[in-house]
Automatic annotation (TrEMBL):
Gene3D superfamilies named among the record's database cross-references: Tetratricopeptide repeat domain
Taxon lineage: Bacteria, Bacillati, Actinomycetota, Actinomycetes, Kitasatosporales
InterPro entries: TPR-like_helical_dom_sf
Annotated protein name in UniProt: Tat pathway signal protein
C-alpha cells in the first residue's frame, strides 16, 4: 500500500520543467551520486514515490536529486524549491573541516584516470555555487584563531618559502598553461604546506599568512585544473581555497577566488551564477581591503557578469571603475604577488570580452587589439594565445576572414608548448568558424585549419 502522505507538488513541477521521465531522472541521480563517490538505489518507482506519495529521499539522495535537476535546467535548484528540508548546516560542504577537505584534494588527484575524466564538465555542480551567509565568514575567522595546533612549528622563514613557491608555480602557469605541473602544486600544498597548517605558529601573523598562502596555492591548483578543462576538480579546489582564506580572515584573497569561480561559471555558460559570484567578490571588505590592482581585476570580471546577463549600462560603469582602479595602482602599495599578471593587457582582454558579450564587436576588437599590443607575450604566453583566438573570432564575426586568419595564425604560433583547454578551445573555434570555407581553396583558410587540426592532435 502506498504511504499515506501528500504528493510533493513542488518536486513534480520542477521535474515537469525538465521534461525528464521518472526513469531518466533516476538515472541522472545515480550518475551524480557516482561522480561524488557514492551509490544510491533509485529507479522509476523510487522517483514516483518521491513525487506521488511525498516520500523523503534517504541519505544524500535528496542532494543528488537537486544537483541532477540543476544540471538539467542550467540553474541552481535548491532542496527547498523541490519541497525537501535543508540538511543540518553542519553537513554542508561549506561546514566540513577545512584541513580535512584539503587532505581530500590530494586523494582526488591520485584517482584513476578514468574516474577523473568522468568528473570533468559533467560533474560541475551548480548547486555548490550557493555561498554561505555572513555568519559563516565570522565563524571561520574565529575558528582559525582558536584551531588546536600540532607539533610542527612554522615561522616567518617557512612562510616566505611557501610564498616563493606559490609565485614560482603562478609564473609557470602563465607561461605554459594548466596542463603543466598542476600535480606538483597539489603535492606541495597537501604535504609540506598542510603539515604547517596542522602544526603551530610562531605568532598569529604567521598563521594567517600561511593559511592565506595555502588558499593561494589551492586557488592556483583549481585555476590550473579549470584551464586544463577539469572543471569538477577545479570547483573542489576553489571551494577549499575559499575556506582557507576565510580561516585566514583574508577578504581580498577570498574575493580573488570568488572572481575565479565567476570566470569559470561564465565560461561554462552559467551567466546568472557567474554574476552572483562576481557580485560577492566586490562586496564589503573583499573590495574595500583589496589593493587597487586587485580591485580592478575583481571589477572587470564583475563587468563581464553584468554584460553576460544583459545589463549593458551597469557593465560599462563597472568597466570604467576598473580602469580607474588600475590607474591608481602604484608600486609599493602593498599589493599581493598573485595579481602580478593583471596589467593593462589583462584589463583590455577582459574589457573586450565584456563588450563582445554586449554585442559591440567593433569596441571589443579595439580592446582585444590593445591587449595584444601591450602584453609581454613571452611572459604571459597562454593568455596571449587565447586573446588572439578571441580577436580572430570577433574579426570573423564581422566577415573579415582574411584578417581573422592572420590573427589566428599568430595565435597558433603562440600556442607552441602551451597545454591548456582554453587554447584548445580557441583552436576548435577557429576550425568551426572556417568550416563553411574549407572547400573554396582559400590558402589562408586552409593553412589555419590545417595548423589548428595539428595542434589539437598534438595536445589531445
Amino acid at each position: 500500500m502506498a504511504p499515506d502522505r501528500e504528493p510533493n507538488t513542488a518536486l513534480a513541477q520542477v521535474i515537469a520543467e525538465t521534461g525528464l521521465t521518472n526513469a531518466a531522472l533516476a538515472h541522472a541521480v545515480r550518475r551524480v551520486a557516482w561522480e561524488n563517490g557514492e551509490t544510491v538505489q533509485t529507479n522509476k518507482s523510487t522517483v514516483t514515490h518521491w513525487v506521488r506519495y511525498g516520500v523523503q529521499p534517504s541519505g544524500n539522495a535528496g542532494r543528488h536529486l537537486a544537483e541532477a535537476l540543476s544540471r538539467r535546467l542550467g540553474r541552481v535548484v535548491t532542496l527547498r524549491e523541490i519541497g525537501l528540508p535543508e540538511p543540518d548546516p553542519e553537513l554542508l560542504d561549506w561546514r566540513t573541516d577545512t584541513l580535512s577537505a584539503l587532505a581530500d584534494l590530494g586523494r582526488i588527484d591520485t584517482m584513476d584516470i578514468d574516474r577523473r575524466q568522468a568528473m570533468g564538465t559533467a560533474a560541475y555542480s551548480l548547486a555548490a555555487l550557493t555561498l554561505p551567509g555572513s555568519s559563516w565568514w565570522t565563524h571561520m575567522a574565529d575558528h582559525g584563531r582558536t584551531r588546536r595546533s600540532g607539533r610542527v612549528l612554522a615561522g616567518q622563514g617557512d612562510l616566505d618559502a611557501a610564498r616563493d613557491m606559490a609565485g614560482l608555480f603562478s609564473t609557470m602557469d602563465q607561461r605554459h598553461g594548466g596542463g603543466h605541473a598542476r600535480t606538483a602544486v597539489v603535492r606541495y600544498l597537501t604535504t609540506e604546506v598542510s603539515s604547517y597548517l596542522n602544526g603551530t605558529f610562531s605568532d598569529d601573523r604567521v598563521r594567517r599568512g600561511m593559511f592565506s598562502t595555502a588558499a593561494e596555492l589551492a586557488y592556483l591548483s583549481g585555476w590550473m585544473a579549470f584551464d586544463n578543462g577539469e572543471h569538477a576538480t577545479a570547483q573542489k579546489h576553489f571551494t577549499v581555497a575559499v575556506k582557507l582564506a576565510a580561516e585566514a580572515d583574508d577578504s581580498p584573497m577570498a574575493a580573488h577566488i570568488l572572481r575565479a569561480m565567476a570566470h569559470q561559471a561564465n565560461d561554462l555558460g552559467h551567466p546568472k551564477a557567474a554574476l552572483d559570484l562576481a557580485s560577492a567578490s566586490v562586496e564589503g571588505k573583499r573590495y574595500a581591503e583589496a589593493s587597487p590592482r586587485e580591485r580592478a581585476l575583481l571589477g572587470v570580471v564583475h563587468a563581464r557578469g553584468l554584460a553576460s546577463t544583459g545589463q549593458k549600462n551597469a557593465a560599462v560603469r563597472a568597466l570604467l571603475r576598473a580602469e580607474d582602479d588600475l590607474a591608481a595602482a602604484r608600486h609599493g602599495d602593498g599589493e599581493p604577488g598573485r595579481v602580478f599578471f593583471f596589467q593593462e593587457a589583462s584589463l583590455a582582454h577582459q574589457t573586450g570580452l565584456a563588450l563582445r558579450d554586449t554585442g559591440d564587436l567593433s569596441a571589443a576588437e579595439q580592446q582585444l587589439q590593445r591587449s595584444v599590443r601591450t602584453r609581454k607575450a613571452t611572459t604571459f604566453t597562454r593568455t596571449h594565445a587565447v586573446t588572439l583566438g578571441y580577436l580572430g573570432s570577433v574579426q570573423a564575426r564581422q566577415h573579415r576572414v582574411e584578417e581573422a586568419c592572420s590573427t589566428w595564425s599568430a595565435g597558433l604560433d603562440a600556442m607552441t608548448g602551451v597545454r591548456s583547454a582554453r587554447t584548445r578551445q580557441a583552436a576548435v573555434e577557429m576550425r568551426a568558424a572556417l568550416s563553411s570555407l574549407r572547400q573554396r581553396g582559400i590558402r589562408a583558410v586552409t593553412d589555419v585549419d590545417t595548423r589548428a587540426a595539428a595542434y589539437l592532435a598534438a595536445t589531445a
